[in-house]
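input
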Amino acid sequence: MDPMTRRRFLRASGVVGAGALAAGAAGIGISELLSTSTPETREQAPTHAKLVIVTLYGGNDGLNTVIPYADPAYYRARPELAYPQEKVLRLDTALALNPVLPGLHRLWQSRQLAIVAGVGYPRPDRSHFRSMDIWQTANPARPVRTGWVGRWLDGTAAPVEAAVSFESVLPPLLAGATRSGACISVGGLALPSSLTTTMIGALGQPQPGESALQARAALSYADLVKMDTMVREASAATSSPSAASDHPPATGTGGSNSLAAQLGLVARCVEAGVPTSVYSVSLGGFDTHAQERVGHEMLLRELDTALTSFVDRMATTANGQRVSVLVYSEFGRRVRANSSDGTDHGTAGPVFVAGPRVAGGLYGEQPGLRDLDDGDLKATMDFRDVLGAALSTVLGAEPARYLDGYQPKTPLPIFAPV
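output
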């Protein structure tokens, strides 16, 4: 899925419009977000856990990310795409990481990376839109209009800054029925040249007799200018030596919205003691139907560089040491390569959880390559077990309350005790 398709998913999801309007959520700027840091919140920050959710849009090829290098069936299914045993970064006697993930391999060795194998949901749907909707709303049975983080915002009566997205559009994940997270675009807004600041300010003035919803919609015009100014300031700040990570952002896939740039803003907020509990960032382009090797490696390199730099940076401060990162994609790819040296939409895949508070190691069971469902992997772990662990351990919430009644059978111990 390329960045345009990712944006189409976000904009086409009815949950975005409904949740954001119900909540009256505005796009706020980084300066405004940083201003929520007070002496009280900075004092409390080291005791408050935080979750960073990384969405890989397009369907990441899990079999070429966490590689079953010891299984001959892997090489038979992918004669051109399979990685030879001497190239992979071994995790144990059966599984290995892709050769372009040395940073994640280092985190694994230091027990700061957990890999949950075979994660999926019942009755897989190979549509990008439906599958991502299932992941973000945590409801595989039927479409709903709220995300699982959005329902947590509703249930805790949280302020808008409690959950923040650094994507171009608020994801359904953060939309609740009565509340919504905030959205801050890394690249700023491209306003039409015909619109002046004065004109937009006039559009944002409340008018007598209008409804609360109309007034909120009008104010959003004024928010555009404020948000654009603040985001441009943030972009300049994150490119400074003091704000940048040790590694430069990768190029070619994210542009100004690269994963490294998004995580750089998260790092600024965490270090400043901003009282945000959940951050949402993303990387698109994983719909690798043709000539997969080059494009997939480029994306994995960007993920590796951005994520390991962020985790290293977080480990250096008390605030950062309470941060955990969850990385997922809407589905994996089919086991057998297609005729275009790529892979088509599949089912289950690995989930990464990284950070100083993570109980590193391998969790769950790697799906077998000989017991397939119409050529696809059979999920061995329900995705709600992973989300439930994040809710209960990181956010201190009851999973069933926000997972539409689903109760994880056994708590997944991927996060170290506080």
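quick obs: Residues 212-238 form the longest helix (27 residues).
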